[in-house]
Every structure is written in structure tokens, then in C-alpha cells.
Please model this.
Amino acid sequence: LFKIHHLSTDWKIVEKVEPDQLINSLSMICPFSVSEKQGLLEAKTLLERNLLINQIINFYIIGNNPGSERQIH
Model:
């Protein structure tokens, strides 16, 4: 996802960030659709937001790959 959208990151810094801060930051900065961002905003708990952001990212990685046989439901 990062390479597709020409995003770069310093993974050493990412590893030091608290999980809640990372999830909230990714929710804001990732190039998700308006409806995806709205879903993240409406998530009632951090766990729900984490699960949703993982589903969205997996969709972009696996779901948009025509050669992929795996599907996420």
C-alpha cells in the first residue's frame, strides 16, 4: 500500500510509536476513501478501529491484486 501510493516511512520510528497512536495516525493519513475514513471515525473502540484498518489495508494489498487467489471476508 505504501509503495503503490508512493508513501515513505521510517519503520524504526513506527516501531517506537504506541499502538493506539499508530492506529489513529494511520486512520488520518492513509489514502483511504471517504467512506472508509468515516467507518474508522465511527469505530467505538480502538480494537474496532484496529480491526477495520487491518481489513481496509488487506483489501488494498490482497483485494486489488488481480493475481491473488486469497480473499478476505
Remarks:
- The helical segments are 11-16, 19-29, 34-42, 46-63.
- The CA atoms of residues 38 and 61 lie 20 Å apart.
- The radius of gyration is 13 Å.
- The chain has one domain: 11-63.
